[in-house]
Amino acid sequence: MSYFITLEGGDGSGKSTLGQALVDQLKALTIPVLWTREPGGSEGAELIRSLLVTGNHDRWDGLTEYLLLSAARRDHITKTIQPALRSGQWVVCDRFFDSSLAYQGGGHGLDQDLLLSIFNGISEGLIPFKTFLLDIDPTLGLARTQKRHHHEVRYEALPMAFHERVRAAFLDLATNNTRYCVLDACQPPSVLLTKVMDELACVLPS
Ligand code: TMP
Q1: How far apart are CA 168 and CA 160, in angstroms?
Q2: Burial status of residue 92 (CB atoms within 10 A of its CB: 0-12, 13-18, 19 or more)
Q3: What atom of ligand 1 comes closest to residue 16's alpha carbon?
Q4: Would the pTM count as exceeding 0.85?
Q5: CA-to-CA distance for 41 and 16, rounded, in angstroms?
Q6: Distance of CA 85 to the CA centre of its chain
Q7: DSSP code of residue 55
Q8: Do 152 and 50 touch, CB atoms closer than 8 A?
Q9: Which of 5, 42, 118, 202 has a CA between 20 and 30 Å from the CA of residue 68?
Q10: Are 142 and 12 in contact (CB under 8 A)?
């Protein structure tokens, strides 16, 4: 049995660090696992990523952005995620469709039904087994990202009110949904990893 696990949260919430630690831990348990990300994770999707994360924040409107994300997601699902799951690998993914609900839905105000209907058309029924939401005050998260020297600054340049809406949308999604596990992103990495492993204990080999 292979599992599709996603990590979600605002910019600078520490998803990548936690995801990599999780992948290392699963490998130590001899579980075959693929670490991937959105936008990106396949050759075509990485090309689309570079269009999405660079340039001025008004380079794309919310809907155009979502269509680009969906094209990238379709390529990622069919070329990377599904083949890995079919071959028996677990897949740990840094962001997935919940990020669209939070950023394009919550942040840009796109209609959730529209987002869902496009997702349903491209996703081949893929739903994460478990989603870890790293919750952080966006002021802290964005301060963390500014310490990095990188060129992927398009989203980080959006106003604080946008990032506040993204955070609220993520928390709203997690309410009353057992697929999610909400984690306080300010906890030390080792504590976060222990909580994630505890949450997955029911599917780990004994
Ligand atoms: P990353 O820095 O976590 O790799 O993500 C790059 C940006 O992409 C991040 O600021 C959030 C944005 N994004 C969306 O707006 N919608 C989506 O569906 C995804 C997957 C990412």
Answers
A1: 12
A2: buried
A3: 3
A4: yes
A5: 13
A6: 18
A7: S
A8: no
A9: 5
A10: yes
Query: What span, in angstroms and rounded, lies between the C-alpha atoms of 57 and 126?
Result: 30
Partners of 183 in beta bridges? 134
pLDDT for 137 equals: 97
Q: 92 with 18: CB under 8 angstroms?
A: no
Cα distance between residue 65 and residue 179, in whole Å:
26
Does the beta carbon of 170 lie inside 6 Å of ligand 1? no
Token representation of residue 125: 């029924």
Distance 39 CA to ligand 1 centre (A): 6
Ligand 1 centroid, distance to 95 Cα (angstroms)? 7
Q: Which element (helix H / strand E) includes 135?
A: strand 130-135
100 Cα: distance to centroid of ligand 1 (angstroms): 8
Closest Cα to atom 3 of ligand 1: 11
In the predicted structure, residue 19 carries a pLDDT above the cut 70: yes
Helix (H) / strand (E) containing 198: helix 189-200
Looking at residue 191, what is its pLDDT? 98
Cα gap 170→99, rounded to integer Å: 8
- If one compares 37 and 205, the residue with the highest pLDDT of the two is 37
pLDDT in tens, 52-79: 999 888 899 999 999 999 999 999 999 9
